[in-house]
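Entry 12.
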Amino acid sequence: MIDAENQQLGIVSVEDALSRAREAELDLVEVSPTAEPPVCRIMDFGKYLYELKRKEKLAQKKQHVATLKEIRMRPKIDPHDEAVKINQVRAFLEKGHKVQLTIQFRGREMVYLEQGRQLMEDALVKLQDVAKIEKPNVLLGKRMTMVISPAKTKHAD
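Predicted 3D structure (tokens):
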């Protein structure tokens, strides 16, 4: 048996353990029922459950769920607008999100497929310090898409 101050009391009868728990106004909790003899502890069980829930919530807060963000562009995008989009992609990647770059072609813009590919390549070159290709650019119908994910951060030595 272990008391409320984490001191081992040795092997104690069940009645004696229950009376000690009542004296301390705490609960007698069986910690290890499979051990021979079973191990019991005197503790505030409600407080123990509260601490467990609190630790679980904190662990969930620290978890980061990567989501897929999409940035859409057109093949004849203005250089300034392209820079703004690249900065958005950089911000998403630094937060740990995956980003899908999409170039939409409308009507006769299908003639500018090479310009669209070049736009993707330029974006990749500008983001090479924070990004890696997860799925290379693919043309599906009138959309060219590429998925990039954050590059693994190098820890300082």
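Annotation: The first helix runs from residue 14 to 23. The chain has two domains: 14-60, 68-150.
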